[in-house]
Specification:
Layout lengths: L4 E4 L2 E2 L12 E5 L2 E6 L1 H5 L7 E4 L4 E4 L1 E6 L1 H7 L3 E2 L6 H13 L7 E6 L23 E5 L4 E4 L1 H7 L12 E4 L5 E6 L1 H8 L7 H17 L2 E6 L6 H10 L6 E4 L9 H10 L7 E3 L2 E4 L28 H13 L4 E5 L2 H15 L9 E4 L5 H4 L1 H5 L2 E4 L1 H7 L7 H6 L1 H4 L5 H6 L4 E3 L10 H10 L19 H7 L2 H6 L17 E4 L16 E6 L2 E5 L4
Helix pairs in contact: 2-6, 9-10, 13-17
Length: 540
């Protein structure tokens, strides 16, 4: 059988040690690397149907994998007004006003990426955006996607007139008179208003998803760990895959929410392995807390407002029981845990589950924004993967701790932000991701942020916690070798070797050697997923 693809004139980079392989060409057959060698030898394997690409010295790495993203949710969320570049309230009001001018009468305004730092010391409430939203039904997602602002008209249409009680740690924030301020915390509260807004057609949603995934492939991504399977996500992935339009390999973890009973857990276990050529359900996503910026994280000591004192699961012991049941069934978990108390509880739950259970099950903690010294070493000891999003630190906090996140935590806890270096040095498997749509999905930006720790919008600003920066090769490993390990796929992915998946990212230069402050601009020359070219530079 002739190869489907042959790459020639390549520099093949091994992220395990940073050395170039002694080869200049590789062949791909049935979606895996079938041969490595020189241009003449590998080129001779070509048949009439083989696609030959001369890379002219470009650098090939194992495919970059985003360790944490939300493709379907992100594709839906990011179709509205983009507020992510707004640094103050005037800019936010201006962007919203521009969005309102494009609406027809009665149409909803959707916006996303609102940074709570624009409110300064004033409360985060819809009144701060008046009169721009007067009479306009508006739903505005804050950057963390765990909270939103709803305009008075949106609240009216949703029938939200006061506080509600939820099964999870969610809240409709109200004033002293019990009237909603517009701030909605966590999914259950946000969903009340989202459900009142008209939904786009399924065809529109499918095209938005396909467009977003194509953009990811063009940015150099070959795969992603999708941290939800909400709604018809799996059906959409299946349709794109069957049509040959899925350009990324997706590993999908459905949610397990508080209140899940035995039957619900059994259903999650039964879903494992469902999938197609380039997507598969693998693992379960849980939440142990919310976010620091909202006051819904779970901290060992309250924040400066007396908030972030409770777990997302009203009964944390129930979470522990669910993790144990999943572990015994051989199902790995990925738990959102931002605060120190949340992270500690997740590690305690994993340690308890491992007592007498299978040692091969890999669990992960997502985010890990602030943890004390005594927690860092437990990741390696328990074999728990540390899934980190460095651009959350670089783009939403400030080196002088004047941002909302840092002010809430105080100097001590803000000083131990996103401890990528400490976790790495302690032996943990650190995986990097974007958490798109929370932060941009461009993987080179994620790698850069892990290295320079500076705000991407202004690299002249000082870094936040430069001592926690990773090196160029370490960051690359975190999105290749370590991503494969986190998925339990280190024997088939994350290396340039015969028999390994032909998921490949190709760059003009070595992404581990390019200066961190220049890395985001490094040209992506070619992207390959499962042996299929998903992006090719116009001049290649």
């Amino acid at each position: 059988m002739h190869p489907q693809l042959i790459l020639l004139g390549a520099r093949l980079l091994d992220p395990a040690d940073g050395a170039y392989l002694p080869h200049t060409a590789l062949a791909v057959t049935d979606g895996v690397i079938s041969a490595l060698g020189d241009d003449r030898g590998v080129g001779a394997l070509a048949g009439p149907g083989t696609l030959r690409v001369d890379l002219r010295g470009a650098v090939v790495t194992p495919g970059l994998v985003d360790g944490h993203l939300h493709p379907v949710h992100g594709a839906e969320l990011t179709h509205g007004t983009d507020l992510s570049g707004c640094a103050d309230l005037d800019a936010v009001r201006g962007a919203l006003a521009a969005g309102v001018r494009q609406l027809t009468h009665g149409e909803w305004l959707h916006a996303w990426g609102l940074d709570p730092n624009v409110f300064g010391d004033r409360p985060i409430e819809a009144a701060a955006l008046a009169p721009v939203l007067d009479g306009v039904p508006a739903f505005i997602q804050l950057f963390d996607a765990h909270s939103a602002l709803a305009s008075p008209r949106a609240l009216e249409l949703a029938g939200v007139v006061g506080p509600r009680t939820f099964a999870q740690s969610a809240e409709i924030v109200c004033d002293a008179q019990g009237r909603p301020t517009g701030l909605l915390l966590e999914e259950a509260a946000c969903e009340l208003v989202e459900a009142a807004a008209p939904r786009p057609t399924r065809e529109a949603r499918r095209e938005r998803l396909a467009r977003a995934l194509r953009g990811m492939a063009a940015a150099g991504l070959t795969g992603g760990h999708a941290m939800d399977a909400n709604g018809d996500s799996l059906a959409l992935y299946g349709e794109l895959d069957a049509a040959g339009e899925l350009p990324l390999r997706l590993r999908v973890a459905p949610w397990c929410q508080p209140g899940a009973d035995t039957d619900a857990v059994r259903a999650l276990i039964a879903m494992q392995g469902t999938g197609g050529r380039l997507w598969q359900v693998a693992g379960v996503k849980l939440f142990m807390d919310g976010t620091v910026d909202n006051g819904t994280a779970w901290l060992e000591k309250p924040d400066c407002h007396g908030e972030s004192t409770h777990a997302f699961w009203p009964e944390p012991a129930a979470y522990t029981r669910v993790v144990g049941a999943l572990h015994r069934a051989g199902v790995g978990t990925a738990t959102h845990a931002i605060g120190d108390a949340a992270v500690r509880h997740v590690l305690d739950a994993v340690e308890q589950a491992q007592d007498g259970g299978p040692a091969s099950v890999r669990h992960r903690v997502e985010h890990i924004e602030t943890v004390p010294d005594d927690t860092v070493g437990r990741f390696a000891a328990l074999g728990v993967v540390a899934s980190m999003q460095p651009t959350h630190c670089t783009d939403f906090t400030r080196a002088d701790h004047s941002d909302n996140w840092s002010r809430r935590l105080g100097e001590e806890r803000a000083g131990r932000a996103w401890r990528c270096r400490d976790l790495w040095d302690a032996g943990a498997h650190v995986v990097l991701g974007s958490d798109w749509p929370i932060a941009p999905y461009a993987p080179l930006g994620v790698l850069a942020g892990a290295r320079h720790r500076r705000p991407s919008r202004d690299l002249s600003l000082p870094p936040h916690g430069p001592e926690q920066a990773l090196g160029g090769l370490e960051a690359l490993r975190a999105m290749t070798v370590n991503a494969a390990y986190a998925a339990g796929e280190e024997r088939v992915a994350g290396r340039l070797a015969a028999g390994f998946r032909a998921d490949l990212s190709v760059f003009a230069e070595n992404p581990a050697a390019v200066a961190a402050t220049e890395l985001s601009g490094l040209p992506v020359r070619l992207t390959v997923a499962g042996g299929q070219v998903t992006h090719r530079a116009a001049d290649l």
